Amino acid sequence: MALFPSSSRPRTLMEQLLARKIEAAAAAAAASASASAHELPGPSGGSRLRRTDSLDSTSSIGSLGSIVLGDDVCRCDDCLLGIVDLYVISSEAARIKPSGWRKIRNIVQWTPFFQTYKKQRYPWVQLAGHQGNFKAGPEQGTVLKKLCPKEEDCFQVLMKDVLRPYVPQYKGQVTSEDGELYLQLQDLLSDFYQPCVMDCKIGVRTYLEEELSKAKEKPKLRKDMYEKMIQIDPNAPTDEEHRAKGVTKPRYMVWRETISSTATLGFRIEGIKKSDGTSSKDFKTTKSREQIKKAFYEFIEGFSHALPRYLQRLRVIRATLECSDFFRSHEVIGSSLLFVHDRKHASAWLIDFAKTVQLPENHQINHFTTWKVGNREDGYLIGINNLIDIFDEMDAEIMAASTVSDSPVSTANTSSGSSSASMSPKRPTCEANEEMGDQQPVKSGTSHVLNIAPPEPSEGRAISYSDGDAGCGDHKSLKGRKEQN
């Protein structure tokens, strides 16, 4: 049986690497099966497969041969690299720690599930992260995410913070039928019909300093990471790495941030799903400002109301971050902004806090200073500011194109029967932004902040406010804040 079923979509490099690793491991396991048959006798005297926890690093190599990776498999770098690590293990490790059987497919396979809201049926789509970590929630408008104690701690604090309206609502723990613990969260897509979704990872790095230090303790050359590196940039490895045909994990972790816009702009696009169901995660090398703008234009194409609402929402989020006790006291790593719009609505939320950790006592960061090992700066505000700048540029470009198309010259050409048309899109007048309320920039000291007045909650909207949550009140801007003209 083929490891990857035939498909018109070409395999990614990570899929090719995974296939080779798995096939090699399966072949080695098959060759040694007869020799080890006396150790694991089956019912008929043959060898019996040792069943282990699919999340355990000692999962059986033999069981690997039965995996068929279809189009619904999570193919993110972390998942695929993790699977390669998981199954390239020694025969000695494969003989230890037997435990209860869980289907090994759960590591890599994700099946879209459907929920019914207002008689509309739609698939909940996770663009980034480990897709097997999610399942349908027991209540309408909820989703379950596999429990991460650090993330639960964050949500418990966030539910009492001014950031509460800008993160998924946390509804407590849920135990599934198999005994797994999950966080029950608000499903941010429940009030949207056929939504477009974009996940942007925020910050100048996506790994904790502790992860980097741990990887440096006993670094070893990784051939799979070397092959991934040369596939993207053959000149990236040093001469020594080329000779060894391997790179260390710390080296790969740092390099991976430099090939996207993470290191330069403080954010990167993780994935985009359009309203027609098509999706893409092919943004790992989307680095330049122009490449980012092109992707953003494609994301909002046909939804001209989305851009001004995203821009307004981002400004509100930035102002709220500056007066948030949670933001002031935490190192925010690997968190994303989730952008969602449909024909009527558009909004954005902060999501994913599994790597967000509380800062040590008496250690302060401003989320804007350049990161150096030891200072724990995450560059979160660098990413937010650049997102706002880019959306501002796009908005100005669209408005300029609209002005040109409405000019007397254009009108005269049209009335005289000219067939020429503006090459740039014209943005129609948007409806009043009910979701964002009356949010007008006002000056406060030396930086620009927003006067945030929460609107009355309206039925059917994806955003909800509670008294006192939507505004910051008087606050001091964080040091290093980039002023917006």
TrEMBL record:
Its EC number is 2.7.-.-. It is an enzyme of class 2 (transferase). The keyword Acyltransferase does not apply. One of its GO terms (cellular component) is nucleus. Keywords: ATP-binding, Kinase, Nucleotide-binding, Transferase. Residues 407-425 have a biased composition (Low complexity). InterPro entries: IPK, IPK_sf. GO terms for biological process: inositol phosphate biosynthetic process; phosphatidylinositol phosphate biosynthetic process. Residues 36-57, 403-485 are annotated as: Disordered. GO terms for molecular function: ATP binding; inositol hexakisphosphate kinase activity. Signal peptide: none annotated. Residues 472-485 have a biased composition (Basic and acidic residues). Belongs to the inositol phosphokinase (IPK) family. PANTHER family: INOSITOL POLYPHOSPHATE KINASE (PTHR12400), KINASE (PTHR12400:SF97). This is Kinase. The gene is LOC119639979.
